[in-house]
Amino acid sequence: MKQVKLKSLSLTHFKGHKAISIAFGDSTTISGDNRMGKSSIFDAFTWLLFGKDQFDRKDYEIFPIVDNKRLDRVDAEVVGTLSVDGSNITLKRVFRQQWVRPRGASEEVYKGNETLFFVNDVPKKAGEYKAVIDGIIDEGLFKLITNPSAFLEMHWTKQREILFQIAGTVSDAEIAASNPKFKTLLDTLNGKPLAEFKKEIAARKRKLNESMDDIQPRIDQTSRLMPEARDFEALERELSEVDAELVMISKQMTDRSEAIRGQYNEIQEKQGKINALKSQQAEIIQQAKTKAQQEAYEANQQRAELEQSVATALRKLKNAETEREDIRRSAERLAQQIKTTLAETESLRQRWSDENEREYKGKDGCLICPVFGTECGDPTAVGKHHETQEKAKAAFMSEKEVKLDAINELGKSKVQELETLNQRMEVVEANLKQLSTDIETLDREHDMLKQQLDSTPIVQPKEVKAVELTEWVKLSEQISAIEATISEVKPVDNSDILPRRQELTERRDGLKQQLTDRDTIARLQQEVKRLQAEGSSLAQQIADLEQQEFTVAEFTRAKIDESEGRINGLFQIVRFRLFDTTNDGNEFEACIPTNTFGVPIAATNTAEQINAGLDIINTLTQFFGVKAPIFCDRAESVNEYIAAGSQMVLLRVTKEKTLSIT
């Protein structure tokens, strides 16, 4: 079994301690009045290992508080020496304030904190330090085996999980062997976890209950929609009587209509003849109008040809004017080009003249020495100077000749270009003159044709009058003769029987509407039966699921009872109830630590609670194979401790105004 012991602990500027060093034995008592810093020693130990206090808080005030203010410009430091299976290791954690002077400022400002780590005085990174601590003891296990209240303050589900872990697993097959129902349950599970199966049952049951809750309101709603029952046989007999009387009335109306149908057919035949004659009249009028329009068209043919000629002459005139305008713009562009070319030619003449007049101007006089500033008397130097002047003059004359030749060539090209432009201008001006003559001719032709058109009148079609058409008049006489033979036909008079037919029709519709209630009642009654059957099915399904739930609860209780027996056999004074009951007697899963009399540990005195915590620590250290120092707060409440195999640190409240360590 791994044995972890605390050999010594030194605190500097940690919470309320300015500086304190403690050497620990197998049992160490730290006593003093309240607020003397006893609990801070346990906080320092947990902070040294994990950077947290005993309550698992990271963010709490570590630096001392003086006059309600943090003590500045100090480092909080905890150094501890541990014995791990007989080998000593020294750990140090430093919480250092960082003060910096911003650029341009005269005073330092507080920037924050940094944490430094040391193992055997060797600096370590945070990850390296944590790896060392993890190699000594797991953080979660450390909390459970160093604080008697840690396990008791855990959530009951976490307590159960740990208890089942240390008691060993009770197999489902072992429990099922005692009850055939449990065997059937395991077959149903088919390897599925029991917790998941319970959730599935609960979900299915909840869905079925929701459907079941909806059944009765739907039955009530369907019943409310059901019409009132009537004597449907009497209604059918009355409907037959009404239908028979309506048939009789319809026969009377048919007989009266037959009586005048012959007369009506004869009139229709005569009216057909009249319509045919009127159609012939309309055709005669249309033929006369067509003939008048043709005659007018033929009379206007010469005018139409004149209109076409006027339009053609106008189009030619407009085209010629457009062409003349295009040529005029071309003439303007050529004139501008000629003007520009003349200016360029004149500019070239001036350049040639200026270049031709330019003469070489060499330096006259003697050669002056650049060193002494006097006339050079060296014949060689004077000769070279004269030779250089001659070469410069020859180069100047050669360059001048080249430039004059270039200007001459450019001038010749401009003269040629000017000749070409003038030739093009002559052609353009000739075309412009010819177009002006053509336009005058076209304008005269257009005016002449327009005068001819204006003097030619438009011939309108001759008005057609029907009474002047002999054939139309003859047809009108025939129509009048036929109309004289048509006598007035009076409509069928059914006024004496129509009110009765209306009355019977309304009565028949009402009877049919009442008879539809019979089908509605039958349909709704069938729906009620279907809903009742569905409700019965849902109730049976819910009952089956509840039976499964009951079996699962029985199985779980049996398994918990077996586990509870195993668990309670591991402890000296603590017992655990893994089930509890509600006020109405229903059981539910729980985890309630009690003493041997069944009193919950939470309801016992402080001494019994501390000893219960030590009992739990003894079992945990035995199971996990590791022992660590136990910090027992409120130790003044306990007169006698149960035996603990671990190092004990007792924090006891006394009236002493300074800490006493024994």
Distance between the termini: 28 Å
Rg, Cα atoms, Å: 65 Å
- Given as residue ranges, the uncertain stretches (5+ residues, pLDDT < 50) are none
Strand percentage: 5-15%
What summary fits the major beta sheet? 7 strands, mixed
Q: What's the architecture of the domain at 2-155 and 605-661 in CATH terms? A: 3-Layer(aba) Sandwich
**SSE-based structural type:** alpha+beta
Rough outline? flat
Q: CATH homologous superfamily name of the domain at 2-155 and 605-661?
A: P-loop containing nucleotide triphosphate hydrolases
Count of DSSP E strands? 15
Mean pLDDT: 85
Q: Total helix count?
A: 13
CATH-assigned fold name of the domain at 2-155 and 605-661: Rossmann fold
- The helix content is 55-70%
What does this structure look like?
The chain has 662 residues and is an alpha+beta fold. Among the domains are: 2-155 and 605-661, Rossmann fold, CATH 3.40.50.300; 301-454, Orthogonal Bundle (Helix Hairpins). The protein has 13 helices and 15 strands. A hairpin with an 8-residue loop joins β7 (87-100) and β8 (109-119). α7 (194-225) packs antiparallel against α12, α8 (232-299) packs antiparallel against α11 and α9 packs antiparallel against α10 (379-454). The mean pLDDT is 85.
